[in-house]
Every structure is written in C-alpha cells, then in structure tokens.
Input
Amino acid sequence: MNKSVRYGDYSPSNNQTTSITTNSLLKCPSCGNENIITDSDSGEMICVECGRVISDKMQEIRPEWRTFSTAEPELRTRIGIPESLARHDMGLSTVIGRTNKDASGNKLDPAMRITMNRLATWDMRSQLHTPKDRSLRQAFFQLDILKDKLGLSDGMVEKAAYIYRKAQSMKLTRGRTISGVLAAAVYIACRELGASRTLDDIATVCNVKRKEVAKDFRILHTRLDLKIPQQDPIKCIVRVANKVRLSEKTKRKAAEIMSTVMKEEVSAGKDPMGLAASVLYLSGIKTGETITQSNIAEAAGVTEVTIRNRAKELTKKIELK
Output
C-alpha cells in the first residue's frame, strides 16, 4: 500500500512529503514491531514505532525512463543493463538468448529453435564485425579481470575504459599490445582518482613487462595531453606500513615527517614509494620500533640503497623531532 507521510526524525527534510511503502514482512530488531515503512527516495527501511533505520541500501525497483518518453507512467518499465564505457557496445546492443522456451515457458518446435539459434549467431556476429569492436571486446574483458585482481572501483574502471577508447580513436593502439595500453590506461586512471597503484603492481597483474607499460604510459600522457596529478606519498606510507605491520604510532609519526618533507618541497622529483619507505624507517627509529631496511624495501618495491640514501638526505635537509 502506497501512501504519503510526513516524518521528522528520519527524513532528509522535515518539511518534505516522501512517498513510502508499508512492509509487513520484516521485524524491527530493537522493538520487534512489524510495521516497517520503505522510503523510496532515500532507500531506507524505517521502523514506525521507534524510528530505527533498519537498512539504507534498498534495491531500486522503480521504473526507469527518459525525460522525452511518451509512455504512460504505469507502462514505463526498467529494462536492460545500464550504459557503461567498459563494454564494447556500451551496453546498448540486443542479446538473443539461446533458450529452448518462449516467453510463456512453452518449448519451441524444432524449426523455430533452429531459426532462433541462427538469429542468435548472426546477432553476435553483427556486434563484432569490425576489428575495432573485437579489440574493444578483448580489452574490456581483460579490464574486468583487472578490476577483481587490483580491487578497482567502478569509477576507475570507467575512467580506464574512457582513456583506452580515446587512445584507440587517435590510433595510438596500432603497433602496441592491448595489454600494455590497457595497463597504462589503468595506471593513469588510478593516478587521477588517487589510488595507490604502482607500475610494478599493474605490470605484474597484467603479465606485461614494466618497461612496456612505462613506455605506453609516456605515449598516452604526451599524445592525449593528460594532466596527471602526483601520487600522494602519505597513501604510500599507509600501504607500506600495512604490509610490514607497523604500529599506529609509527604510522602517525611517519605522516608528520612526510608533511614536513612536502612542506619543505624536499619530495620533488623523488619516487613516492622510496620516499615513503625512508620516512617509515626514520619514524621507526624515532618511536623505537624495530624495522629492518630489507623488510621495508621489499614491501615498497625499492632497494635498500634507495632507503639509505633518502634517509641521509632527509636527515640533512629537515629537522626531525
């Protein structure tokens, strides 16, 4: 039953009338009341008796349509998958299933089944009839695998797909491997969105040489005229510290030292991972926590010589308290 109710404690706006739906299939864990309402605007399920928000992640089930749609509200329905740049057809193509039943659940006769199988085959072929479509399908199939291995967000995936499409439109993928260009696009997307992913991490997951990824990265950076921000060294500190399992006290001390380093502009031109490893080594000395250079170097992916040189340089240029 749909109705409109004004409520004050759990509404986004106290003077806003919100459409809610009564749900009697749930029970409030606090008071045991079964009178639960669902706010379709905020996606919250709320107890009427005590006002507790039981869930704030309700699945969207309302119809979806365009503003220029002329259909009646009750005839508008949600259909298809959402549009995405990470699909070779952007999610706009048709899909003919290979089921042996019609919409009513009745089995198809042999002649119709053969016809539907041929239609499904030609439908699939029509979507991949150009080399560009086949290249995009292969690239975005690899991108979907990278999303799980690297723990990328949907925004990073969409950004990487956009960069790859732009590179392909400017014919920068010719003479280069799909894996190399895609790895460079993922690295650029991570840098732009502030994720701490190094070239070594992405090259290892993509099974591509680091030299190839770095070369493709420089080409995309130059030819596409991208403004890529510098990697945040403080995020690198957290990443390396978690690998070595350092204490929170050492992490905070390292963050203070890194803030001083960035303020004095000593970090200009330095590798963020090497700089973070050196700052962690110095903070461990200050806090009295035992940290070996070999462990930090292995966690940061740098050499012990880099840590020693950076630590000596930081000790000379800044005053460590």
In short: The mean pLDDT is 79. Residues 84 and 197 are 23 Å apart (CA to CA). The chain has four domains: 1-79, 82-127, 131-223, 233-317. Residues 82-127 form one domain.
